[in-house]
Design goal:
The protein is about 35% helix and about 15% strand. It has about 150 residues and is α+β, with helices and mostly antiparallel strands. The strands form 2 sheets. The protein has a two-stranded antiparallel sheet with strand order 1-2. Strands 3-4 form a two-stranded antiparallel ribbon. The longest helix is centred in the C-terminal third of the chain and has 13 residues, at about 125-135. The protein is globular and about 50 Å long. The N and C termini lie far apart (about 45 Å). Keywords: CBS domain. InterPro entries: CBS_dom (IPR000644), CBS_dom_sf (IPR046342), Diverse_CBS-Domain (IPR051257). It comes from Laceyella tengchongensis.
Length: about 150
């Protein structure tokens, strides 16, 4: 049986708006122990902010904490859909070099899947370990760790 992302995705997603300041976003990530936050405006996914974005685009650039998250978010979005198979999602994550995948339906963020979600679901451990090894081995210049602006 082919499981879909809707079967394993986290649906309790914290999202922020693009005007929210960097400090506020970092605080939410710390409080909820999450490494990625979707940036949403009027329900539509505009970008994502990862813990790495906070460091490389924020702190390392001496950006004040009062700057808006719009200034550091990744706009090259890789996403999945609830009806996508876990195998398809693993392949997309490996190709895009991302560890977390927003799940979008009708332009709305409805969930997030992480490599951890794949790894704890017994049938998907192979896909998760394959995706992780590919993500660890190579670098995609369009992933959220891209420093070009």
């Amino acid at each position: 049986m082919m499981h879909k992302l809707r079967d394993i995705m986290s649906t309790n997603v914290t999202a922020v708006n693009p005007q929210e300041n960097v400090y506020s976003v970092a605080s939410k990530m710390r409080e909820q122990n999450i490494g990625m936050v979707p940036v949403v405006e009027n329900g539509r996914l505009l970008g994502i902010v990862t813990d790495r974005d906070l460091v490389t685009r924020g702190i390392a650039n001496k950006m004040p904490n009062s700057r808006s998250v719009r200034d550091i978010m990744s706009t090259h979005i890789v996403s999945g859909t609830p009806d996508m198979t876990v195998d398809e999602a693993s392949r997309i994550m490996a190709e895009a070099q991302v560890r977390r995948l927003p799940v979008v339906e009708n332009n709305q963020v409805v969930g997030v899947v992480s490599l951890g979600d794949l790894a704890v679901n017994q049938p998907y451990q192979d896909e998760a370990s394959q995706a992780l090894s590919e993500i660890s081995e190579t670098h995609n210049p369009h992933a959220s760790n891209d420093l070009q602006s």
